[in-house]
Design goal:
Elements (H helix, E strand, L loop, with lengths): L3 E4 L12 H31 L4 H11 L5 H10 L6 E3 H6 L2 E3 L6 E16 L6 E19 L3 E3 L32 H11 L8 H17 L8
Antiparallel strand pairs: 1-5, 2-5, 3-6, 4-5
Helix pairs in contact: 1-3, 2-3
Length: 229
Protein backbone atom coordinates (compact mmCIF):
# COMPACT_ATOMS: atom_id res chain seq x y z
CA UNK A 1 0.00 0.00 0.00
CA UNK A 2 1.25 3.51 -0.78
CA UNK A 3 1.49 6.28 1.71
CA UNK A 4 -1.17 8.96 2.03
CA UNK A 5 -0.28 12.62 2.35
CA UNK A 6 -2.39 15.32 3.93
CA UNK A 7 -1.83 18.83 5.20
CA UNK A 8 -1.16 19.18 8.90
CA UNK A 9 -3.98 20.77 10.86
CA UNK A 10 -3.32 22.59 14.10
CA UNK A 11 -4.90 19.85 16.17
CA UNK A 12 -3.73 19.38 19.72
CA UNK A 13 -2.47 15.94 20.56
CA UNK A 14 -2.88 14.53 24.07
CA UNK A 15 -0.08 15.67 26.39
CA UNK A 16 1.19 18.08 23.73
CA UNK A 17 2.30 20.53 26.42
CA UNK A 18 4.20 17.98 28.52
CA UNK A 19 7.80 18.78 29.36
CA UNK A 20 10.39 16.03 28.71
CA UNK A 21 10.32 15.25 32.44
CA UNK A 22 6.53 14.96 32.44
CA UNK A 23 6.62 12.71 29.39
CA UNK A 24 9.18 10.45 31.07
CA UNK A 25 7.10 10.27 34.26
CA UNK A 26 3.94 9.53 32.28
CA UNK A 27 5.67 6.76 30.33
CA UNK A 28 7.04 5.23 33.53
CA UNK A 29 3.58 5.27 35.10
CA UNK A 30 2.00 3.61 32.07
CA UNK A 31 4.64 0.87 32.09
CA UNK A 32 4.15 0.28 35.81
CA UNK A 33 0.36 0.15 35.38
CA UNK A 34 0.75 -2.36 32.55
CA UNK A 35 2.90 -4.62 34.71
CA UNK A 36 0.36 -4.31 37.53
CA UNK A 37 -2.45 -5.38 35.19
CA UNK A 38 -0.46 -8.35 33.87
CA UNK A 39 0.65 -9.48 37.33
CA UNK A 40 -2.92 -9.20 38.65
CA UNK A 41 -4.39 -11.45 35.97
CA UNK A 42 -1.57 -13.98 36.35
CA UNK A 43 -2.02 -14.09 40.11
CA UNK A 44 -5.79 -14.49 39.81
CA UNK A 45 -5.36 -17.24 37.19
CA UNK A 46 -3.07 -19.16 39.55
CA UNK A 47 -5.60 -18.77 42.37
CA UNK A 48 -8.50 -20.10 40.29
CA UNK A 49 -6.35 -22.99 39.09
CA UNK A 50 -5.63 -23.93 42.70
CA UNK A 51 -9.23 -23.37 43.81
CA UNK A 52 -11.62 -24.23 40.95
CA UNK A 53 -14.58 -23.67 43.27
CA UNK A 54 -13.93 -19.95 42.79
CA UNK A 55 -14.58 -20.15 39.05
CA UNK A 56 -18.36 -19.74 39.32
CA UNK A 57 -18.13 -16.73 41.69
CA UNK A 58 -15.63 -15.21 39.25
CA UNK A 59 -18.07 -15.69 36.38
CA UNK A 60 -20.69 -13.68 38.27
CA UNK A 61 -18.12 -10.99 39.10
CA UNK A 62 -17.05 -10.82 35.44
CA UNK A 63 -20.63 -10.30 34.31
CA UNK A 64 -20.74 -7.13 36.47
CA UNK A 65 -17.43 -5.51 35.61
CA UNK A 66 -16.56 -6.56 32.06
CA UNK A 67 -18.70 -4.18 30.04
CA UNK A 68 -16.75 -3.72 26.80
CA UNK A 69 -13.56 -5.10 28.35
CA UNK A 70 -12.08 -8.57 28.01
CA UNK A 71 -12.51 -11.56 30.30
CA UNK A 72 -8.79 -11.35 31.03
CA UNK A 73 -9.25 -7.81 32.31
CA UNK A 74 -12.13 -8.98 34.52
CA UNK A 75 -9.75 -11.56 35.99
CA UNK A 76 -7.19 -8.87 36.75
CA UNK A 77 -9.84 -6.56 38.19
CA UNK A 78 -10.98 -9.28 40.59
CA UNK A 79 -7.45 -9.56 41.94
CA UNK A 80 -7.22 -5.80 42.49
CA UNK A 81 -10.73 -5.05 43.75
CA UNK A 82 -12.90 -8.14 44.32
CA UNK A 83 -15.80 -6.04 45.67
CA UNK A 84 -16.11 -3.83 42.58
CA UNK A 85 -19.60 -3.66 41.08
CA UNK A 86 -19.47 -1.03 38.32
CA UNK A 87 -16.17 -0.05 36.74
CA UNK A 88 -15.27 2.79 34.37
CA UNK A 89 -12.46 5.16 33.52
CA UNK A 90 -12.52 8.70 34.93
CA UNK A 91 -13.50 9.90 31.44
CA UNK A 92 -16.61 7.73 31.29
CA UNK A 93 -17.56 8.49 34.90
CA UNK A 94 -17.47 12.17 33.94
CA UNK A 95 -19.97 11.42 31.18
CA UNK A 96 -22.29 10.11 33.92
CA UNK A 97 -21.80 13.29 35.91
CA UNK A 98 -19.48 11.73 38.47
CA UNK A 99 -15.92 12.49 39.55
CA UNK A 100 -13.32 10.08 40.89
CA UNK A 101 -12.40 10.72 44.51
CA UNK A 102 -8.92 12.17 45.03
CA UNK A 103 -6.58 9.42 46.12
CA UNK A 104 -8.86 6.61 44.95
CA UNK A 105 -6.91 3.46 44.20
CA UNK A 106 -7.08 2.74 40.46
CA UNK A 107 -7.69 -0.68 38.95
CA UNK A 108 -5.19 -1.25 36.16
CA UNK A 109 -6.42 -2.99 33.01
CA UNK A 110 -5.02 -3.57 29.54
CA UNK A 111 -6.46 -1.60 26.63
CA UNK A 112 -5.82 -2.13 22.93
CA UNK A 113 -4.82 0.92 20.96
CA UNK A 114 -4.44 1.26 17.20
CA UNK A 115 -4.08 3.99 14.66
CA UNK A 116 -2.15 5.34 11.70
CA UNK A 117 1.61 5.70 11.60
CA UNK A 118 1.96 9.40 10.81
CA UNK A 119 5.17 11.12 9.76
CA UNK A 120 5.36 14.91 9.38
CA UNK A 121 7.42 16.12 6.43
CA UNK A 122 7.90 19.38 4.60
CA UNK A 123 6.56 19.46 1.07
CA UNK A 124 9.44 20.75 -1.10
CA UNK A 125 7.01 22.23 -3.64
CA UNK A 126 4.83 24.22 -1.22
CA UNK A 127 7.02 24.53 1.86
CA UNK A 128 4.09 23.40 3.98
CA UNK A 129 4.37 20.69 6.60
CA UNK A 130 2.29 17.67 5.65
CA UNK A 131 1.45 14.43 7.36
CA UNK A 132 2.17 11.16 5.62
CA UNK A 133 0.25 8.09 6.77
CA UNK A 134 2.70 5.23 6.53
CA UNK A 135 0.86 2.09 7.58
CA UNK A 136 -0.90 1.13 10.79
CA UNK A 137 0.15 0.41 14.36
CA UNK A 138 -1.52 -1.46 17.21
CA UNK A 139 -0.55 -2.61 20.66
CA UNK A 140 -1.55 -2.92 24.30
CA UNK A 141 -1.28 -0.16 26.86
CA UNK A 142 -2.58 0.32 30.40
CA UNK A 143 -5.73 2.11 31.43
CA UNK A 144 -6.88 3.12 34.92
CA UNK A 145 -10.47 2.40 35.88
CA UNK A 146 -12.37 2.97 39.11
CA UNK A 147 -15.25 1.34 40.95
CA UNK A 148 -18.44 3.38 41.33
CA UNK A 149 -17.89 3.57 45.10
CA UNK A 150 -14.79 5.65 44.40
CA UNK A 151 -16.90 8.33 42.67
CA UNK A 152 -19.10 11.22 43.78
CA UNK A 153 -21.49 13.60 41.98
CA UNK A 154 -19.40 16.13 40.06
CA UNK A 155 -21.10 19.34 38.91
CA UNK A 156 -24.77 18.47 39.38
CA UNK A 157 -26.75 16.55 42.00
CA UNK A 158 -26.80 12.78 41.61
CA UNK A 159 -29.49 11.86 39.10
CA UNK A 160 -30.51 8.89 41.28
CA UNK A 161 -30.63 10.20 44.84
CA UNK A 162 -30.14 13.96 44.56
CA UNK A 163 -26.92 14.09 46.57
CA UNK A 164 -25.24 17.45 46.01
CA UNK A 165 -21.94 17.73 44.07
CA UNK A 166 -19.02 16.64 46.20
CA UNK A 167 -21.22 14.66 48.57
CA UNK A 168 -21.25 10.90 49.07
CA UNK A 169 -24.32 9.08 47.82
CA UNK A 170 -26.03 6.89 50.45
CA UNK A 171 -25.60 3.12 50.25
CA UNK A 172 -29.20 2.87 49.03
CA UNK A 173 -28.50 5.00 45.93
CA UNK A 174 -29.32 3.22 42.67
CA UNK A 175 -25.97 4.29 41.22
CA UNK A 176 -24.39 1.45 43.18
CA UNK A 177 -26.67 -1.20 41.70
CA UNK A 178 -24.67 -3.72 39.65
CA UNK A 179 -25.41 -3.77 35.95
CA UNK A 180 -24.94 -7.39 35.04
CA UNK A 181 -24.15 -8.48 31.52
CA UNK A 182 -23.80 -11.97 30.03
CA UNK A 183 -22.18 -14.50 32.35
CA UNK A 184 -19.11 -16.09 30.71
CA UNK A 185 -19.21 -19.87 30.43
CA UNK A 186 -17.00 -22.17 32.47
CA UNK A 187 -15.38 -23.24 29.21
CA UNK A 188 -14.46 -19.64 28.37
CA UNK A 189 -12.89 -19.19 31.80
CA UNK A 190 -11.00 -22.49 31.50
CA UNK A 191 -9.66 -21.45 28.08
CA UNK A 192 -8.50 -18.12 29.52
CA UNK A 193 -6.74 -19.80 32.45
CA UNK A 194 -5.07 -22.28 30.12
CA UNK A 195 -3.77 -19.42 27.95
CA UNK A 196 -2.40 -17.47 30.91
CA UNK A 197 -0.90 -20.51 32.67
CA UNK A 198 0.44 -22.26 29.56
CA UNK A 199 4.07 -21.74 30.53
CA UNK A 200 3.36 -23.53 33.82
CA UNK A 201 1.58 -26.51 32.31
CA UNK A 202 -1.75 -24.97 31.42
CA UNK A 203 -5.13 -25.58 33.01
CA UNK A 204 -7.49 -28.54 32.57
CA UNK A 205 -10.85 -28.00 34.27
CA UNK A 206 -12.11 -31.50 33.45
CA UNK A 207 -9.03 -33.09 35.03
CA UNK A 208 -9.32 -31.02 38.21
CA UNK A 209 -13.01 -31.78 38.60
CA UNK A 210 -12.38 -35.49 38.03
CA UNK A 211 -9.59 -35.44 40.60
CA UNK A 212 -11.86 -33.71 43.09
CA UNK A 213 -14.58 -36.31 42.52
CA UNK A 214 -12.07 -39.12 43.00
CA UNK A 215 -10.80 -37.57 46.23
CA UNK A 216 -14.38 -37.29 47.51
CA UNK A 217 -15.03 -40.95 46.62
CA UNK A 218 -11.97 -41.99 48.65
CA UNK A 219 -13.23 -40.00 51.61
CA UNK A 220 -16.66 -41.60 51.32
CA UNK A 221 -15.05 -45.07 51.27
CA UNK A 222 -13.00 -44.54 54.45
CA UNK A 223 -14.10 -46.72 57.40
CA UNK A 224 -15.95 -45.04 60.23
CA UNK A 225 -13.57 -44.60 63.19
CA UNK A 226 -16.53 -44.63 65.52
CA UNK A 227 -17.33 -48.34 64.92
CA UNK A 228 -18.09 -51.04 67.53
CA UNK A 229 -15.32 -51.84 69.99
Amino acid sequence: MGSTTRKTSKRRRPRADFTPEQRAAYGARKRADKQTAIAAREGAAALLAQRPALIDPFRVYASRVMGHRTLGNALGMMAQNPSATRVNSAFFWAKEGRAVLPGAAPICVLARRKGNKIVEEENPDTGETEETVQGKWSGWTAERVFDVRDTIPAKKPCQHCGTEPGGTCPASCAVYEPVAGPVPTREEVAELLDTILREEGGFDLDFLEAAADEAQDLLDDEPDDGGDE
